[in-house]
Every structure is written in structure tokens, then in C-alpha cells.
């Protein structure tokens, strides 16, 4: 009986060691199932959305009920970086509105560019977070994107693929949010940047206590 049990355990372990990415939990996909009842709006096009939505909360409501994380696309992004190939194009907001699926940077682009159009005074920015890298089936995951904006002198954060439909805030500063978010994700953050474009490069904001080599940009 003991020999049979041991053989079964070895079989299970060997099987788990060769799990494909389709069966693996990717770090930036939603941690909980989205609620289908959230964000159901009779809006047929992105142009109509721009004429209807007024605030980040309106965008957030739609995201909560519509966004789906695209696991295959996440692997493509990782593979392109690994093999130093030309990057996978980020969805334009109008394209994302139709597909309703993508990865963190697609969702962040949708949030920032849409908020710029409907409420530019909220000062929307891309928040790029650099985690200590992890590998899943040979693919490296390090960067994560979401959106920051201001309201009544406070900072807010949303369009996060990890928790679509969730609006975090108010915070006195981005650093306070980063400290909290690091605990939420259970992953060490070594750098972050607030940017006007996901394509722009600049010196990262250092995280207290991290080594200089950890803070180096990608």
C-alpha cells in the first residue's frame, strides 16, 4: 500500500512540474472573478462612451463589468521581451473597447487616454511598477501598469488588471499607495514611475531600502 501511495505521489509531482502556461496562474490576472452585473451600460461604441462618461468612476464601472485578462497575450509580451523582439503593440483605447480583453498595459492605456479626454484636470498618469521578477514556465514577469489620477488634492489608482473595477484611494501620495500595494500583491516592489506615456523612459522613483542595482530600469 505504501509503495502504491508513493508511486501516485511521484506521478502527481512529475505532472505538476510540466504545467503549461494555460494552466498556470499569471501574476497580473484578476485574483477574483469579475462581477458580470457591474458596469453593464447601453453603450455601443467608444465614441458614445466618450460622450457619456464624465469621471474615472464611470470608466471604472465599465472596466469592472467588461474587462477580461488575456493570458495568451501576456505570454506574447513576455516572449517578446525575453527574445528581444519588437514589442507587441498596445491596444488603442477604441480597439480595447471592442475587444474588452488584454493585459495590464492595455487596460492602463485605456484608462489614461480615456480619462485625458473626459476629465483632463484629473491629471491621469501611467503608474509603472517594477517587481522583483518571477518566472512561470520559462516566462519572466516583472512590470505592471495601472492608472493614477488626482481628485480633491488626493491620489487615486485604478484600471488594475489584478483587480478590475476596484478604485483605490484617497492617498496622500503615490508612495503610500505603493507601500500598501506591495503588501497586497505579496511581491517586493523595487521601483515605480508615474509617466505620461507607457513608451517614455525616465529615472525610476526609488523605493526606500532597495539597492541601487534593484532600481535599475528595464
**What's the Cα radius of gyration?**
19 Å
Beta-strand content estimate: 15-25%
Order of helix and strand elements from N to C terminus:
HHHEHHEHEEEEHEE
Which residue ranges are poorly predicted, with pLDDT under 50 across at least 5 consecutive positions?
Answer: 1-23, 211-218
- Number of DSSP E strands: 8
What's the number of helices? 7
Physical arrangement of strands within the biggest beta sheet: 6-5-4-3-7-8
- How many structurally independent domains? 1
Fraction of helical residues: 25-40%
CA distance, first residue to last residue: 53 Å
Strand count, sense and barrel status of the largest sheet are: 6 strands, antiparallel
Q: Based on helices, strands and strand pairing, what is the structural class?
A: alpha+beta
Overall 3D geometry? Answer: globular
Can you give the mean pLDDT?
A: 82
In words, what does this structure look like?
The chain has 218 residues and is of the alpha+beta class. The chain has one domain. 36% of the residues lie in helices and 22% in strands. It is built from 7 helices and 8 strands; from the N terminus they run αααβααβαββββαββ. The chain has a 6-stranded antiparallel sheet with strand order 6-5-4-3-7-8, with helices on both faces. Strands 1-2 form a two-stranded parallel sheet. Helix 3 runs antiparallel to helix 6 and helix 5 crosses helix 6. The N and C termini lie far apart (53 Å).
Amino acid at each position: 500500500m505504501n509503495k502504491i501511495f508513493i508511486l501516485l505521489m511521484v506521478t502527481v509531482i512529475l505532472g505538476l512540474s510540466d504545467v503549461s502556461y494555460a494552466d498556470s496562474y499569471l501574476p497580473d490576472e484578476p485574483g477574483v472573478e469579475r462581477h458580470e452585473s457591474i458596469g453593464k451600460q447601453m453603450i455601443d461604441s467608444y465614441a458614445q462612451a466618450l460622450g457619456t462618461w464624465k469621471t474615472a468612476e464611470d470608466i471604472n464601472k465599465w472596466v469592472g463589468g467588461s474587462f477580461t485578462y488575456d493570458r495568451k497575450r501576456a505570454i506574447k509580451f513576455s516572449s517578446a521581451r525575453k527574445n528581444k523582439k519588437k514589442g507587441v503593440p498596445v491596444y488603442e483605447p477604441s480597439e480595447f473597447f471592442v475587444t474588452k480583453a488584454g493585459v495590464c498595459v492595455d487596460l492602463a492605456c485605456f484608462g489614461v487616454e480615456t480619462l485625458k479626454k473626459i476629465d483632463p484636470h484629473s491629471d491621469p498618469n501611467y503608474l509603472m511598477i517594477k517587481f522583483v521578477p518571477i518566472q512561470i514556465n520559462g516566462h519572466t514577469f516583472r512590470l505592471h501598469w495601472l492608472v493614477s489620477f488626482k481628485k480633491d488634492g488626493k491620489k487615486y489608482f485604478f484600471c488594475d488588471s489584478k483587480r478590475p473595477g476596484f478604485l483605490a484611494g484617497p492617498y496622500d501620495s503615490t508612495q503610500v499607495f505603493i507601500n500598501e500595494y506591495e503588501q497586497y500583491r505579496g511581491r517586493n516592489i523595487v521601483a515605480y514611475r508615474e509617466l505620461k506615456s507607457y513608451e517614455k523612459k525616465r529615472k525610476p522613483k526609488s523605493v526606500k531600502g532597495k539597492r541601487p542595482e534593484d532600481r535599475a530600469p528595464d
